[in-house]
Amino acid sequence: MNRHDQPNRGRLRPRLLAAAAAAALTLTAGLATPLNPVPQQAQAKGSQQAKESKKVLTVAVAQSVDSLSPFLASRLLSTSVHRLMYEYLTNYDPADNHTVPGLATKWEPSADKLTWTYTIRSNSKWSDGRQATAADAACTFNKMMTDQG
Q: What is the reported pTM?
């Protein structure tokens, strides 16, 4: 039997791949919807209560997070979760990837370009309400650069 006896065989694999992709998307969409939808009125009441209570970050992921410590994590998923949990000194503008302020409002190098000076936002706070300071940022940076993991 040669290839010409099976005219649809070459099209079967792309069709199977497309069907598998569609099934995966359907499964993903099903997992993304809440199992118990909250009525609109209860949602409004809940959002008022949420403002008055502690803030909670819930992240659903398909892989395991190797560490919540920004010093020990190595997986892309973990560092993506860190972006939701921790404020960085600077961030990137998604439109063109230029550096934009984060925890730091401005930054400038010394004349010899060996030392950088960051100005920390005056309204920055830790999750417990304490003021975040330049000393905190310096401690974090130094820990990151010297931690053996």
A: 0.53
Q: Assess if residue 99 is contained within a domain.
A: yes
Identify the helix (H) or strand (E) that includes residue 25: helix 9-32
CA dist list (Å): 135 to 7, 42, 99, 107, 131:
71, 43, 22, 15, 11
Total domains in the chain come to 1
Q: Which residues of 23-43 are buried (b: 16+ CB within 10 A; e: fewer)?
A: eeeeeeeeeeeeeeeeeeeee
pLDDT at 75 over 80: yes
> Is residue 112 one of the residues assigned to a domain?
yes
- Judge contact between 3 and 12, C-beta under 8 A: no
**Residue at 83 is within a domain:** no
Strand partners for 107: 118
Domain with residue 147: its CATH number is 3.90.76.10
Q: What is the mean pLDDT of the chain?
A: 77
> Hey, what are 8's tokens?
């649809």
Cα(86)–Cα(11) distance, rounded to whole angstroms?
48
Give a yes or no: residue 13 inside a domain: no
